[in-house]
Amino acid sequence: MTGDEAREELLRLRSSIDNMDSMLVHLLAERFKVTQRVGELKAKHGMPPADPDREAKQIARLRSLAEESQLDPEFAEKFITFIVREVVRHHEHIRDEQG
Ligand SMILES: C=C(O[C@@H]1C=C(C(=O)O)C=C[C@H]1O)C(=O)O
């Protein structure tokens, strides 16, 4: 492969990365819209913001999916834990605003 061909291939690969990053942002936006509704429901009915049993099941499920997909399960766990931590923070905020 020549230098020019390598640069063209890099641009093609980056274009694919950009598309996937866009999908990730759209998916996350949709997920946060749903978790916002969960937070409002929980606050209204006095349910706690976090549900550790549910989180443990999600982590186990995503670790298994990651293994099947040749993605590092440690990374999958860190990723979902990071997102869930932010969701729980939002839920605490919604609860505190309603109180
Ligand atoms: C969304 C919920 O609230 C919290 C956030 C979760 C998530 O982001 O998936 C999972 C469990 C809860 O700690 C829920 O209980 O389903």
From TrEMBL:
- Among its keywords, does the record have Aminoacyl-tRNA synthetase? no
Native source species: Tessaracoccus oleiagri
Which keywords belong to this entry? Isomerase
What Pfam families would the database entry show? CM_2
- Could you tell me which InterPro entries the record lists for this protein? Chorismate_II_sf (IPR036263), Chorismate_mutase-related (IPR051331), CM_bact (IPR010951), CM_dom_sf (IPR036979), CM_II_prokaryot (IPR002701)
Q: Annotated Gene Ontology MF terms?
A: chorismate mutase activity
Q: Domain named Chorismate mutase: which ranges?
A: 4-95
The name this protein goes by in its record = Chorismate mutase
Query: What processes does the entry annotate via GO biological process terms?
Result: chorismate metabolic process; salicylic acid biosynthetic process
Signal sequence coordinates: none
Identify the domain of life.
Bacteria
